Amino acid sequence: xxxxxxxxSLFIAFHSHSQITVTSSNMPVSGDTLRFSTALLDSSILLxxxxxxxxxTWIFDSLRVIxxxxxxxxxxxQTPYNAIPTNRIGLLFADTLSLGPNSVTNVYNFIxxxxxxFSIDYRAATLPFVGSPIPIQIPYQNKDEVFQFPLDYLDRDxxxxxxxxxxxxxPLYYGSAGYRINEVDAWGSVTTPYGTFNTLxxxxxxxxxxxxxxxxxxIAIPSHLRTYQWIANGERIPxxxxxxxxxxxxxxxxxxxxxxSARVVEPLLPTIALFNADTTSVVVNDLLDFNNxxxxxxxxxxxxxxxxxxxxxGSSTTRSISVTFQDTGRYSVRLxxxxxxxxxxxxxxxxxxxxxxxxxxxxxxxxxxxxxxxxNENFTIYNSSSFGTSFSWEITxxxxxxxxxxxxxxxxxxxxxxxxxxxxxxxxxxxxxxxxRLNATENGELKFESKIDIIFxxxxxxxxxxxLELNSKISFAPNPVKSGSALTVxxxxxxxxxxxxxxxxxxKLVEESIATNAHKMxxxxxxxxxxxxxxxxxxxxxxxxxxxVE
Length: 550
Prior knowledge:
Elements: E1 33-39, H1 43-48, E2 53-59, E3 65-75, E4 89-99, E5 102-113, E6 117-127, E7 134-148, E8 156-167, E9 172-192, E10 195-214, E11 217-232, E12 240-247, E13 250-259, E14 275-277, E15 281-283, E16 287-292, E17 299-305, E18 309-313, E19 321-325, E20 329-339, E21 342-355, E22 366-368, E23 372-374, E24 378-383, E25 390-396, E26 399-402, E27 405-408, E28 410-413, E29 423-428, E30 432-442, E31 445-458, H2 468-471, E32 474-477, E33 486-491, E34 497-504, E35 509-514, E36 520-524, E37 530-538, E38 541-549
Parallel strand pairs: 2-9, 15-21, 23-31
Antiparallel strand pairs: 1-3, 1-13, 3-4, 4-5, 5-6, 6-7, 8-9, 9-10, 10-11, 11-12, 12-13, 14-16, 16-19, 17-20, 18-19, 20-21, 22-24, 24-29, 25-30, 26-27, 28-29, 30-31, 32-33, 33-36, 34-35, 34-37, 37-38
């Protein structure tokens, strides 16, 4: 969760090969606005980025830009936080960061630049709370030394760090600890689309363990990141960076960035407008999700005819949306997708059919404690009927087959049964959707209420204990990955993959797939950016892996 890749040295106005030295005087300062571009990993990178030694020449001028980002370094007094020392430099880490069921906003790292090191020693965020937000301003227990000075060819340094946040109300714990190793393994000339520079090349390994605890769930997220940084005089940030993960001892590059000026970023593919809906037939005021499958687009415009809709997720200009329809009838839907100077329009005439809400029998009703249950944990369904003197519950499906043996999908708990009048407590043994029907009888008259797929049972998300041996036998790349792009999953032949589930960081099931005895496959990454957990189920047990979707 920490990636601050900055460095920098004195200005040299010529590009002849010569060694440079990086000192604290070359670090970013308050007021710096530094731009970098993200590019495709082309063959010039994949074949040449690891070359080390003295007097190298690296040519990367064929890089194709796919996006640009600006880093703004500000004084601590220009941030929302007033308990940070005034000589610190603030750098926005995230607008919003999810920690379990809670989210924090305005997350800043604060940097202390001295003659001996360039370190992160404070982190601050804002925690939403009833009444007014709570500012959190916490020093590191052991600062994160990004660089130690001076840096010269063949230098090598290491440091560790520790950060802890423990909140009582709402209950939330977040801790991050690890170490980093910097090694200057090369120097020479590097060429990018931005220019040619004399550089030191620094290789940084960062090994960390992030721990999150909330609502009785504990999640541990280990990672090993590696960056190759080409540092030039006077540029403040690296003129070139290759980022990636170390998986089972092997470095897998997943992104490349370089110092740049403002430029028009053209889409890689022609813009194509494409969307679908979860269903094309709904009742009035029912929620409907629209999935934006457009290619090569960066901005969008949704239109409905008639326009009697309410946006419950997103808006008319966001990528994907959820809406409710206020009137019956047929609705046409249009999406305009724009990328750079290119645009495309898809209009589906009379695409959605909205019908009146169905009649619900009067007097019989029930409510579940939520729409999501966790397998092997108690879950309550409450009877709120005003009709009936005797009741019976029906929950479907009732059985499933495991290794040829039929088993119940759920069991009644806490002394309740299918004939309980007030409520029932159940414990689900199998993940998936469940429908519930409540039958009520009074004076010989039968009435009922039925709700289809009202409950979704999911496996719990969390790492109480990680199977390290099994963890090393399953890998996927790239990580981080672009939303909606391809992920390659590899499984050693000694184990058999049976299935996998994808959960968001707040524990919601995003995807589930059967993958019987697959050893290499390509899957699509989630379409919404964030942190996700893949639960791989094998014949040797289960293992959970984290992935970052950008």
